[in-house]
Design brief:
Elements lengths: L2 E7 L3 E7 L5 E8 L11 E2 L1 H18 L7 E8 L5 E4 L9 E2 L7 H9 L3 H8 L8 H11 L3 H6 L3 E4 L1 H9 L6 E3 H4 L5 E2 L4 E2 L1 H6 L9 E3 L7 E5 L5 E11 H8 L8 E5 L3 E8 L10 E8 L2 E10 L3 H10 L9 H7 L7 E3 L17 E3 L7 H27 L5 E5 L6 H11 L2 E4 L5 H13 L16 E3 L5 H18 L7
Parallel strand pairs: 1-5, 5-14, 9-12, 15-21, 21-22
Antiparallel strand pairs: 1-2, 2-3, 4-7, 6-8, 10-11, 13-14, 15-16, 16-18, 17-18, 19-20, 22-23
This protein binds adenosine-5'-diphosphate (ADP).
Length: 499
Amino acid sequence: MSHIIALDQGTTSSRAVLFNKNAEILNIVQKEFRQIFPKSGWVEHDPLEIWNSQRDVLHELMQNNTLAAGDIAALGITNQRETTVIWEKESGKPISNAIVWQDRRTAFICEKLKEDGLGDYIRENTGLIIDAYFSGTKIKWLLDNIPGTRKKAQNGELLFGTIDTWLIWNLTEGKVHATDYSNASRTMLYNIHTLCWDKKLLSALEIPESILPEVKNSSDDYGSYVFTDNGGAKQSIPVCGVAGDQQAALFGQGCLEKGSVKNTYGTGCFMLMNTGEEQIQSASGLLTTIAWGLKGKITYALEGSVFIAGAAIQWLRDGLKIIDSAPISEQLAIAANDDSDVYVVPAFAGLGAPYWDMYARGAIFGLTRDTGQNEIVRATLCSLAYQTKDLIDAMQKDCAIELKNLRVDGGACANNFLMQFQADILGKKVERPPVIESTALGAALFAGIGVGFWDETMLSGDRPIEKTFLPTITEQKRNKLYAKWQKAVTRSMKWADDS
Ligand code: ADP
């Protein structure tokens, strides 16, 4: 038992990551899967494609490294959060595609909740702001719109899960229907004070409690993955760690002390601050969420969520087709005319924190005759940094503390242009660790602690830094650039609200 494997089920790809006893990454296998956009503002994934890709990368990782089940102490799972799957208990068949966290189709259900005066109740009891982002309204939409499902749900024939739950259920061949505190706290159905599914919200959204999973610690017994190896023998690996991707990254970055902060640049951008046992209620549009549960003790976090970050770079590649790959964006941005006044607001899925506008849409401002692809690529990268500044400013206001530096991770933080611009626009030091796979590391740590492979001393000590980016622009220039960003955001707001 010399290894831990983290299953990192992200929005754009499924990954399996192999860790040794020193929590170092030995190998990663990754597979992208389809993003399905059936209508404007809708985003879906095929749950079976997610499961198959995740299982395939796990087996490929084991084969590549000639590992048998007996070499793996435990599996940890970390996942894209809020994405909603409902499936038949008996057959395991999903009733439809998964509704992805970025999907806006349930905005009208959110409006109804607001009209019914539930805003304050939801804020106080779930820590969240009413938004189509969270799972609750997605479940209601599926039960209302897929024929026959409401009756089946009431008869106890259907199960709901976020992606962690869907994977656990498949790994254990339907034996375990469970999630962890961090994922439950993103459903807008879970009461983060009483640690129970909230009956008032279940009733408001007409969701039968029987479809919901059991909620457990992030290091816990989630059953075992049983499979048949090439020689026909039955093998089994325990599943002992589960956390939503952003909370896992907070853990993996070693942000274990109250007040420590990380920012992840993945599909979206997510800044989390560990607030210990305290649930800080934000006055600036941030969310209160559960970071993790360890041995029954709950740690809370304050979170700023930006829906579109790296996804905007994917759009440059797959939508506009002006770059061949995400990393190439760095060279094009460096080659751009840096006093061009172009701003991209990537509000493709509305705006999250601190604006919370479900009807904002993407926009490009400041185009002139000499604007070329380089300037658009540069402005798109800069939008990730501006959105991060929006979050930091909100967090500093809520906590009345001045953050000195920012610890970063996630795919897009490999981009040096972006990280330098981030330091410039924040006027703060940006620190990048050598391992930007903090999410997978967090899941591996939860699993390793859960199975007794590691003890908690593994969590102590400073994490190494690969590169530090220092601010290089004047405060006057910073203020000027940021003021223009805020002007651009204001102009993109309420665009899709035709009422
Ligand atoms: P997720 O876990 O949300 O799927 P990742 O952390 O794997 O995301 O990051 C992938 C995202 O980062 C993609 O949206 C991709 O466009 C972006 N990305 C990856 N590398 C770079 C890069 N060098 N520069 C800019 N963006 C990048």
